[in-house]
Amino acid sequence: MKTRGYAVTSAKAPLADFEFERRSLRPRDVALDIYYSGICHSDIHQAREEWGPAIFPMVPGHEIVGKVIEIGSQVSKFKVGELIGVGVFIDSCKNCASCGAGLEQYCVEGMTGTYNALERDGKTIAFGGYSDKFVIDEDYAVHVPSNLELSGVAPLMCAGVTLYSPLKNWNAGPGKKVGIMGLGGLGHMGVKFAHALGAQTTVFSHSPEKEADAKAMGADHFIVTKDIKELDKLKQSFDLILNTVSADLDLEPYLQMLKLDGTLVVIGLPGKPYAINAGTLLGQRRSLAGSMIGGMAELQQMLNFCGEHNIVSDVEVIKSDYINTAYDRTVASDVKYRFVIDAKTF
Question: Which CDD domains does this entry report, sorted A to Z (predicted)?
Answer without folding.
Answer: CAD1 (cd05283)
